[in-house]
Amino acid sequence: MKALFQKRRRGFLGRCSKYLRYVLNDHFVLVLMVFLGFLSLQYRQLLIAFPENTWPLILIVLAISFLILFSGRMATYLEEADQIFLLTREKEVLEEFEAASRRSFVLWSGLQVLLQLLLLPIYLKLGLEIWMVVVYIVVLLVAKYFLVKYQLATYQQQGVLNWSTAIQDEQKRKQTILRFFALFTTVKGISATVKPRRYLDGILRLLHSRQTWFYLYLRAFLRAGDYFGLSLRLFLLILLSLVAIDEAWLSLGLVLVFHYLLLFQLLGLYKHYDYQYLTQLYPLDKKRKMKDFQHLLRVILYGLLVVETVVAQLFIQEKIMVAILPIVCIFLHEVYLPIKLKKID
Question: Which N-terminal stretch is annotated as signal sequence (predicted)?
Answer without folding.
Answer: none
